[in-house]
Amino acid sequence: MAQGRSPPPEIRSPERDWAEEAELEEKFDDAFDIPHKNASHDRLRRWRQAALVLNASRRFRYTLDLKKEEEKEMIRRKIRAHAQVIRAAFLFKEAGEKDLREAYTSIKPATASRSFPIELENLTALNRDHDTVILQEVGGVKGLSNLLNSNLDKGISPNTDELLKRRDVFGSNTYPRKKRKSILRFVFEACKDLTLIILMVAAAISLTLGMTTEGVDEGWYDGGSIFLAVFLVILVTATSDYRQSLQFRHLNEEKQNIQVEVVRGGKRCGASIFDLVVGDVVPLKIGDQVPADGVMISGHSLAIDESSMTGESKTVHKDQKAPFLMSGCKVADGYGSMLVTGVGINTEWGQLMANLSEDNGEETPLQVRLNGVATFIGMVGLSVAGAVLLVLWIRYFSGHTKNPDGTIQFVAGTTRAKQGFLGAIRILTIAVTIVVVAVPEGLPLAVTLTLAYSMRKMMRDKALVRRLSSCETMGSATTICSDKTGTLTLNKMTVAQAYFGGTKLNPCDDIRVMSHGAAELLIEGIAQNTTGTVFLPEDGGDAELSGSPTEKAILSWGLKIGMNFNEAQSNSEIIHVFPFNSEKKRGGVAVQSDAGVHVHWKGAAELVLSSCKSWFTLDGSVQTMSSEKYDEFRKSIEDMAMSSLRCVAFAYCPCEIETIPKEDIADWKLPDDDLTLLGIVGIKDPCRPGVKNAVQLCTNAGVKVRMVTGDNIETAKAIALECGILDADGAISEPFVIEGKVFREMSETARGEIADKITVMGRSSPNDKLLLVQALKRKGHVVAVTGDGTNDAPALHEADIGLSMGISGTEVAKESSDIIILDDNFTSVVKVVRWGRSVYANIQKFIQFQLTVNVAALVINVVASVSSGDVPLNAVELLWVNLIMDTLGALALATEPPTDNLMKRQPVGRREPLVTNIMWRNLFVQAIYQIVVLLVFDFAGTSILRLQNESQENAEKTQNTFIFNTFVFCQIFNEFNARKPEERNVFKGISKNHLFIGIIAITTVFQILIIEFLGKFFKTVRLNWRLWLVSVAIGIISWPLAYLGKFIPVPVRPLQDYFKPTSCWRTSRRPDEEEGGHR
């Protein structure tokens, strides 16, 4: 029997030893550096404790809720324990309890009058108790299907009314979802920001004191304007966060929408897991998720992994003695079919998911690193704000602060207490607002914004992201280990060549030269040794095939050579099955007919051939396999393989019925060492259009594409040459092209030495793929791996980025992966690389823009406050600047679409500093320009702007308004520069980003409204057209300045390495990276 294959044991390596040592070191090192996969709760807790946070509910909204994770685990344990206790108690009940059985077997008149003669409560109890005795009382699975008005062969009717009726009676295959947060909840959470709370308290005090001292008409402006600005910040923040939450909710729903096969009206068809109803017949194969509770109809070597429900990591073999299947479990081995008897909340899985349905988020390494950057900047900002507060208070209370008209603001013993207190509060609001600007609370959230945007766009590019961090990591990928079938090829297979009786058939479906007996044996093997089906429509239309592409190709060829599928299956009875095994790369079946017992094998041609001791001639006689004949068949296989054909051989052996065990047939090992070769077919699977260009694009981007396939090494080489993975002029022998067996048998050291050179690996097993991934990671590579089979799960899990196939991939593979490629196309994998690089690039753009605003605003306010005792940018103006910089800036820059230029760079090192030397150069050029120009206007603005004839109060207001207006326009124009930190043409592709243009337009319009119409609130005055032109002109100068600045050379060594001020900027490298390995 084919036993359930557990994943290969974890292979210990020096990488792990280094990782463990690094883990210990990191306890005293960088709290803001977490692994991109499987970070421990202690590591996640550590960075939270180290972060400087002003609004925890907002900052940690999209991170993993550690407390809820612990609660989830408790709920899982309770539900599992509850189910097990019920079953254990039920087993102790006496088997002869009639009342209990009558609940299932008796059909009451009231019930019989309904559509189904079985109550929902009774069906739910049967699923829960797993009592085979009661199942037999109702007539087994056949009797149960009759009670459910279903047919074990044809399933239920696909009629919509029938499906709706079943949903009404037995429920739908969904579970209650927790209500999504309303926008008011996001408004409330935005209000929790500590700085905004302080500002609102200060505004309330200012409002109260202002109205009592200056009257209601004039006194409410100071406090009211701060309230208005705070309200605007809260509204924009809450709206942005709410939209992100909707995007994540939609993506989570997509992840849960599993596609399954179901038999309805005698025909196999695809359906969403949510559309399943009680009475459906569902085929199951290795790697599938059991989509609902049910009872096995038939199965061959069917083994189920029930660890998701029982918590025990062992497989359970299913047969007529133990036929019950639980929703949410995985098929570990074999295949079969099931009758759905429970869906949705009426299953244990549904109850579990109903309690765990809320997605609590996930932090990514980049997000955590940005929290470190935000903490560092925030600490600097707090220090600066504290210094400004102290200096302004000392100057104020010592009588060195003057009003616009020249009078001293505070005179000890003269100024009233209310007036003095109001002045002190005004200074406090300025200091707090500096903190608002200085602490980039939105910096880590910009990652969430760009990831949400990227994930939505990636869905359109046929990639469903399951793990957020994979978006970032994909930008650092240095190598992609790709499958061949379906990824590099179309997965549309047809039999192109056939060899039987040592002769090539021409055409390949002409079997007239074969004897009748040989043809019958071949058709018997094709019809019985398959997991596919043939559906013949009643109207006489074309046959509809189901199964894997290889199975469909062989079944289609079988029909062409005269196979009647249903007749061939009815002529013999299956005794035992050995499902296709990716390790042995073949599958077998024992069938009994009037002619006796035959064991049929089908699989990789050279492997099946090696087990053959004889071969069938065209006239039906059996000849011994001589070495010359073996070489002849071997040469036929190589010729087909070199023509890019996948070679499949058919063989059989007769079996004496006396040798078949009467009992425990499930443990019978099918004979596989004395076979008779029937024939060989070559299956054509063309390369996908565009794959060659995609491979070339990866090569130019510094990403090496490797093919890892289970196919014949010659087939693999031919396809690799066709796809451009191998160069016809380059080396196409070992170690560049290698067989999995050769690689597997090497020592770990030897594997490490040749891993970099391997370009094609043929006849590989899933364990060989895992070994290659581990060897490449030890060399310092960031490895992306594609996989579709159950046994690919360890490699997908081990890889830095696991990419499963959405069409051909099993549910086990998908759950082990980070990204699902929905169209199984390699070109979609390359698009994921582009998006990964885009995520990183967009975050860097936003950081450059935000740091420029931070540096300029802080320096201007500090210098002005120390020198003059006042600041040119007041609290309300700074809140508006913060809104431009934080939320609107993130929206504009973090949603830039990827460009072709991204694929002309080398991969981003995972430990490279977030702020590169190029960014520092751009930042300093713009910040120094803004600081110098605006401080000149702050100190000599009256004369430069020719305001000498104005009153002192009006001149100062005009000067400060001009400085504020100029500062904002500098940021607006610098936002363009931030789009392209490394390119001189910052306008390239701008017309495609409508959101960027919209935000620039909105910011400009609001700035005009503030200056011209909201002067009372912002303490500004209207500017004449000359001052408007000068403001805009100063802002525009940032464009040529940025262009010229990009000619300034920058050192290769990161600037942070010269200073290393805090751990959040530190770049830690692995030992192999320091030796020059790839990052």
UniProtKB/TrEMBL annotation:
Cation-transporting P-type ATPase N-terminal domain sequence ranges: 140-211
Protein task: Catalyzes the hydrolysis of ATP coupled with the transport of calcium.
The family this protein is said to belong to: Belongs to the cation transport ATPase (P-type) (TC 3.A.3) family. Type IIB subfamily.
Residue intervals passing through the bilayer: 186-207, 219-239, 373-394, 427-453, 918-937, 995-1015, 1027-1045
Catalytic activity as recorded in UniProt: Ca(2+)(in) + ATP + H2O = Ca(2+)(out) + ADP + phosphate + H(+)
Top enzyme category: translocase
Topology of this chain in the membrane: Multi-pass membrane protein
Enzyme Commission (EC) number: 7.2.2.10
NCBIfam families referenced in this protein's UniProt entry, alphabetically: ATPase-IIB_Ca, ATPase_P-type
Keywords, ordered alphabetically: ATP-binding, Calcium, Calcium transport, Calmodulin-binding, Ion transport, Magnesium, Membrane, Metal-binding, Nucleotide-binding, Translocase, Transmembrane, Transmembrane helix, Transport
CC terms in the record's Gene Ontology section: endomembrane system; plasma membrane
Chief location category: membrane
Location in the cell: Endomembrane system; Membrane
Keyword rRNA-binding applies: no
PANTHER family, per the entry: CALCIUM-TRANSPORTING ATPASE, CATION TRANSPORTING ATPASE
Protein name: Calcium-transporting ATPase
Domain of life of the native organism: Eukaryota
